[in-house]
């Protein structure tokens, strides 16, 4: 989700959207509903994307046998085979794998409407006993991550796995992003920061990036986005700030952006509705 406000460009990287459920959604998902995390059959990942996602998830969770099976379902393997990783991330992924809801990972490379990642509930399945199960589409624009500039550890704090975990946090925990000027980070990224610290990665400082006009060597100007992170240390006097930069105009279509006020209003409504 993206927006503009008062001539100043603002970006909302990840969004959660709640819709009403219609008969068409029931019919479409009834025959293909499978709980847990899986790769979309309609918008599958490339082999490279799949391998990189598995390796990243193993690193974040510490689950050494975690993998996608032949049907595209994410399976944790032997849950006692753990090597480091984040305990919080591991619990999140296991909760999603064991969930009665369905989380479908889709590839949306070079999408003008998705900045990095997005999750949306697109249907509901009612089983024979009347139990209700949500169908979530977790859309990742892998091409967007190629636009990021930063050091290895900082990029690892904002890679496809970090964004996938962020999106799952929306769905599983019901957490929302930054709402209002007094909330610079949001519930969701605050939770993901716990995982980053457990992994020894820098924490994200603000949800909304800084935007500034920049110039390429050939004199062409563009809008540069800056995301700030910090490495924690035992001393408050030695907090190291690091940064990721990118060309915003290559990540999403600025002309389709929404105002920050509109987004904050929607998030506040969602936050109150979930409680």
Q: Can you count the helices?
A: 7
The first-to-last residue Cα distance is 23 Å
Structural class: alpha/beta
> If you average the pLDDT, what whole number results?
81
Q: How many independent structural domains?
A: 1
The general outline is globular
Unreliable residue stretches: 1-31, 257-275
Largest sheet data: 5 strands, mixed
Protein described:
There is one protein chain. This protein is of the alpha/beta class and 275 residues long. It has one domain (2-273). The protein contains 7 helices and 13 strands. The chain has helices spanning 23-30, 47-61, 87-97, 152-156, 160-173, 187-199, 260-273, and strands at residues 2-5, 8-11, 16-17, 36-39, 67-68, 74-75, 102-107, 117-126, 132-140, 203-204, 210-215, 221-231, 240-247. Strands 3-8-9-7-4 form a 5-stranded mixed β-sheet. Strands 10, 11, 12 and 13 form a 4-stranded antiparallel β-sheet that branches. α3 crosses α5 and α5 (160-173) packs across α6 (187-199). The longest helix has 15 residues, at 47-61. It is globular and about 60 Å long. The relative contact order is 0.17. Mean pLDDT is 81; it is low at 1-31 and 257-275.
Topology readout:
Layout lengths: L1 E4 L2 E4 L4 E2 L5 H8 L5 E4 L7 H15 L5 E2 L5 E2 L11 H11 L4 E6 L9 E10 L5 E9 L11 H5 L3 H14 L13 H13 L3 E2 L5 E6 L5 E11 L8 E8 L12 H14 L2
Parallel strand pairs: 3-8, 4-7, 7-9
Antiparallel strand pairs: 1-2, 5-6, 8-9, 10-12, 11-12, 12-13
Helix pairs in contact: 3-5, 5-6
């Amino acid at each position: 989700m993206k927006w503009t406000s008062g001539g100043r460009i603002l970006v909302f990287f990840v969004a959660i959207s709640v819709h009403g459920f219609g008969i068409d959604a029931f019919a479409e998902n009834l025959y293909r509903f499978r709980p847990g995390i899986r790769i979309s059959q309609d918008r599958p990942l490339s082999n490279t994307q799949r391998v990189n996602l598995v390796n990243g998830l193993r690193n974040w969770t510490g689950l050494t046998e975690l993998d996608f099976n032949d049907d595209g379902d994410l399976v944790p393997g032997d849950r006692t085979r753990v090597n480091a990783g984040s305990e919080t991330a591991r619990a999140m992924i296991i909760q999603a794998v064991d969930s009665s809801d369905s989380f479908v990972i889709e590839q949306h490379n070079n999408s003008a409407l998705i900045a990095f990642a997005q999750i949306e509930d697109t249907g509901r399945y009612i089983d024979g006993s009347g139990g209700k199960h949500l169908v979530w589409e977790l859309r990742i624009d892998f091409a967007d991550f190629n636009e990021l500039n930063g050091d290895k550890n900082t990029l690892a704090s904002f890679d496809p796995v970090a964004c996938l975990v962020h999106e799952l946090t929306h769905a599983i925990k019901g957490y929302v992003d930054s709402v209002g000027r007094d909330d610079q980070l949001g519930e969701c990224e605050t939770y993901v920061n716990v995982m980053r610290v457990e992994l020894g990665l820098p924490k994200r400082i603000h949800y909304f990036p800084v935007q500034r006009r920049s110039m390429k060597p050939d004199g062409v100007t563009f809008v540069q986005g800056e995301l700030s992170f910090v490495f924690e240390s035992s001393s408050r006097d030695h907090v190291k700030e690091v940064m990721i930069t990118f060309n915003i105009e290559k990540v999403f279509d600025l002309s389709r952006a929404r105002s920050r006020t509109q987004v904050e209003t929607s998030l506040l409504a969602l936050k109150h509705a979930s409680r």
